[in-house]
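REQUEST ID: PR-0412
SUBMITTED BY: lab tech R.K.
PRIORITY: routine
TASK: structure prediction, single protein chain
INPUT:
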Amino acid sequence: MTELKFAELVEIVKRLRKECPWDREQTNESIKAATIEEAYEVVEAIEKNDYEDLRSELGDLLLHVVFHTVIASETENFSINDVIESIKNKLIRRHPHVFGEVTVSGSEEVKKNWEEIKLSEGRKSILDGVPEILPALQRAHRLQEKAAKVGFDWEKKEDVWKKVIEEIEEMHEV
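STATUS: complete
OUTPUT:
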């Protein structure tokens, strides 16, 4: 039943792209700000603990996923099935403790493995993947979270200076 409802939504968006002048004029570029706004509305509904609003806002966000994908499929860049296949494969690949033979002791080990898997997928640094377009404060927070995962997190500023000196000494050795 879920697949049928999802397919109906995709068909509605395709029809809107053909028959509605406004929808037809839209591009991925023209609706990108609205997509971000919808994501923030989802977060706001979560923070209000308002499940009725959350259901509605998730629908709006899903509409944007479908809308962007239908636009991409019109130019034969990718289809909704490609999007689904991509996320399905990523979830399986990044959960070897569920879909493979890896054993983990808890969620901290899952997060560590997740970062290692992302690095094996071609990322050059654990800091890769934090969108440059994020608001500055949010970007700084995400970068700090990622740095903390590999030991760059200290309680006292004196400890930070110790690490800076250690890194400078390592540079002199090279």
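NOTES: DSSP finds nine helices and no strands in the chain.
REVIEWED BY: pending
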